[in-house]
Amino acid sequence: MIDISGISLLSQEHQKVEAQQNIQIRTDQWLKVEEVTGNVTYRNFYSYDNRPARVGDLLQIASDEISTGAHSSAVLTVDTAVGSIYVGENTTIQIRSFQIASDNGRVTNLYVPRGKVRLQIRKFTHRGSQINIQTPAGISGVRGTQYIALVKPNGNMLITTIEGSVATTAQNQTEIVNGGFQNITVVGEPPSTPIPFTDDASLRYIINRQVSGLSRSIVVSGYTSPSNTVKVDELEQSLDGNGEFSLKFPATSSLKVKVTVETPTGKIQVYEIPIL
Prior knowledge:
Elements: H1 5-21, E1 31-37, E2 40-44, E3 49-52, E4 58-59, E5 65-68, E6 73-78, E7 83-87, E8 92-100, E9 106-121, E10 130-134, E11 139-142, E12 145-151, E13 157-163, E14 165-170, E15 173-178, E16 181-185, E17 195-196, E18 204-212, E19 215-223, E20 229-232, E21 235-236, E22 244-250, E23 256-262, E24 268-274
Parallel strand pairs: 9-10
Antiparallel strand pairs: 1-4, 1-6, 2-3, 2-5, 5-8, 6-7, 7-9, 8-9, 9-12, 10-11, 11-14, 12-13, 13-16, 14-15, 16-17, 18-19, 19-22, 20-21, 20-23, 23-24
């Protein structure tokens, strides 16, 4: 058996050192927890703080983060009442850094490795002010708008702009996503060209029954908008660039599976698919 305790301690120590290196001198920039629903955790790797999040908690130095569990959420407000951030279920949002622009504007850099956040940010007073969200696929930046950033299980980033405009950047290329449009940034690729947002939760599917020797199985292939979130019996699925997913079930499976399709704005459609 391999002892991983030492590896875990080294990882924690690395996170602590990294946080120490990035501690901000200023203390008047922050995100504040305004609402907590369900299982929400507050973490700070510098102090090793790891506990249930509470209303009033401040995320104000690098590495401060909150994570939500299944069927859980939180609402954060940005300092100087510039706006709010809705944090969806199974989401982590972390402070990367705070900065002051040359015109005294405030720059907030956040990291979202997974999940969904919805930002409602008013127009900034200073031109240098900005809120940036980094994901495994790229960066989105705004100076005042309402939009949704969704990070898929595979790290791909989906941006849906409700109002205003959002700049999405990856691989040294930038695309502007205006209100009513969305785009996808695949990990390792530049952002896609924005397309109109339809808020469509429809699902098409095909059922194939396969026989190989004495083994029998059932394959369910589904198709929906690649911007949607799909859960099969509550387990989130990874979609390819065309919005397709595929699952194999043994022939002894239950008579049907439950597929839930959710659009970025929260529109939900539930499908009961008979497989036998």
